[in-house]
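During the first year of the project, the team set up a workflow for recording each protein of interest as an amino acid sequence followed immediately by a discrete structure-token representation. This format lets reviewers and collaborators read both layers of information side by side without switching files. As required by the reporting guidelines, we include two representative entries from the current panel. The first entry is reproduced here exactly as it appears in our internal archive.
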Amino acid sequence: MAVYTEISDDELEAFIAEYDIGAVVSCKGIAEGVENSNYLLSTTGGTYILTLYEKRVARTDLPYFLGLMDHLAARGIACPTPIHGRDGAALRAIAGRPAAVVSFLKGLWVRRPTVAHCSALGEALAALHLAGRDFRLARANDLGMAGWRKLHDDVAARAHEVEAGLAGEVAAELETLASTWPRDLPIGVIHADLFPDNVFFLDDRLSGLIDFYFACNDFLAYDLAVCLNAWCFEPTGEFNATKARALIAAYRKSRPLDPAELDALPILARGSALRFLLTRLYDWLHHVEGALVKPKDPLEYARKLRFHRGVAGPAAYGVA
């Protein structure tokens, strides 16, 4: 979450008047994340999140994202629920941007995930995948292989500013992944961005999942690989196989993994690490001056990619 677009008081009051959620009490920008402009909105009717969609979020994708949150919430997944206006529409516009109001989830994200947190995440991720099986809309992953190539083309000329030789390393990795990427794994709705700051806990109980604006239809095991990268490395850079084992074991209790999915985990983890290396690199090199957001270090994911490159099989992730 972040703030790129400012809203005037008059714009906000006119926008909120289209809902039955009361009058505006306060509206404060949220300075986390990198994709959209987000505000913590308080009204006389409650607390909400107001999101203005920016950058990589295409307006044509918004019915998928908002519909998915409605769908998942109806099936018991704790996630933000879009608030529909008096006319029944959840998607509107403010300050020249597509926008929506969603329910506010209580909880905090954990800065130092424990094994127990990883286990709870695995259980929640499997529940999300199962709940998404009958979602009627579909969306391709625009940050798959084709998206990685485009991002590389956009950053290759300046990647040396971050680390010497990085562009060449990424180009070689793209070629390797293109020739080894799985072709026939189970596909379904995935979150695709389930980092710790998108998972809330209350008293060590997982209380909700947020930020579904990269959700798409792709390999279910790729979502697990994203979580391995986001949750199972220590701040000092070491991979924690105990956390990975807990994450995968909890997931498998609800949704067993095919042997092919287990075998593919190292290559999927490499692809996930490359995806976040590239998007972080792009944001680092194209930082919007004055935006209420700090770009994240792309080299964190270069190091993770190098770890996965040296992995021989799923046993490295604690999988027997």
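The second entry, processed by the same pipeline in the following quarter, appears below.
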Amino acid sequence: MLAAEVARWFVWLVAFAWGAAWGSFFNVAIYRWPRGMSVVTPPSHCPSCGEPIRPWTNVPILGWLFLRGKASCCGTAISVRYPLVELLGAILCVAVAELWIVRAEPGTLVLHATIEALLYFIFASGLLIATFVDLEWMEIPDEVSLPGAALGLLSAPFRAEPGLWSAAVGAGAGYLIVQVIFVWGYERIAGRRGMGEGESKLLMMICAFLGCRGALFSVVAGSLQGLLFATFALVTGRKLTPDIEERVIDGEVIEAPEQPHASRVGLLKLPFGPFLALGALEYLLAGDAILSWYFGLLQR
């Protein structure tokens, strides 16, 4: 069966449900990985009272709306992050399905198009998880970057772009450039790190999926958007990072270590991971259109 023979509305519907369902898992990963917890055990439970979450209250997006943002067991407020992540997961899945299934090249088998779409959805999902963890904890979990980079390299021969050579060279170069220049070199010169190992590993994953060109776009676009946000935050007096003074892991209060990987703007810390992920998503979903628009402006 060819991808062109599948109705667009059906692809959208399945992709939305699939992405929203996985969004529930993303919320588990965002909560548990920074705390050193397993995403498998124990089963989903209320963080406040520990009561197991009933299946009918755990329906993506709708469950939060039905409960009006409060846990059914103890009435504790549930962060709006939960339905937001589920909705973003659904939107990303629909966007990926549109590009790799609905708009697949003529003659593409639906199985091949679906596998490629799933690979890029996994990549986009990793970027989504890394973004929310970095925003809250000022760190990027290795559970995202390292398996993501491995998957990108292993799947490169089976994807149309960027090719195995570009993916492998880009992954190695992207990691080493950030690690040597912005982590070790910057620390030796300035006494603190300009970026950290979290960003270098995340860029390695981005290179493995998008190649050198995509990684360069992600860095440049992420830097520009991060600078705009930092300027806005400085002008308005908004905080750029959360206040993390202590963490509770397995019932033990642990002082949060200094986040040496956080990028800095002036004297303020700024997590660069979310902007790097944003640039990667922009390239993945609309990179050619953005570059064509940009170079079109230069030619005027």
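For the second entry, the following points were noted during internal review. Residues 244-267 have pLDDT under 50 and may be disordered. The helical segments are 8-32, 62-66, 81-102, 110-137, 142-155, 164-190, 197-236, 273-298. Both points are flagged for discussion at the upcoming steering committee meeting.
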